[in-house]
Design a protein that fits this description.
The chain is an alpha/beta fold. It contains five helices and five strands. The termini are close together.
């Protein structure tokens, strides 16, 4: 990649945030990590984001609720949902909401990187 895309990582699990932060840095991406959707929304700087990788189920706002908030604000940043509890209904809901990817935890690093690269092309 010619520039360092900024990728938001939103997950309530600090271990997940840490491992994804390390993974993205190892391939030259710039992660911004948040413990929840509300923290990400309050942080500002969203116009710089190339992609959002968010947990589906978190305390407070879910990943799908975050996507709805972003759409309502006119943001078109691509997003990828990850979950430890994949169901066909959740996958269908994510697809209808416009998710670029739907991955199961533990996330395979190569699949995540491929999904991010596809999303930011």
């Amino acid at each position: 990649m010619s520039s360092s895309p900024i990728i938001a990582i939103i997950d309530d699990d600090p271990d997940v945030r840490g491992s994804l932060d390390s993974l993205l840095r190892s391939v030259g991406m710039t992660p911004r990590c948040y413990a929840g959707a509300e923290e990400m929304l309050a942080s500002g700087g969203h116009e710089e984001l190339a992609c959002i990788v968010t947990d589906l189920h978190m305390p407070g706002m879910t990943g799908l609720e975050l996507q709805a908030q972003l759409s309502a604000r006119g943001w078109r940043t691509p997003f990828i949902l990850v979950t430890a509890y994949p169901t066909d209904a959740a996958r269908d809901q994510a697809t209808r909401a416009g998710a670029c990817g739907f991955l199961t935890k533990p996330v395979d690093p190569d699949r995540l990187l491929d999904a991010i690269e596809d999303a930011i092309r």
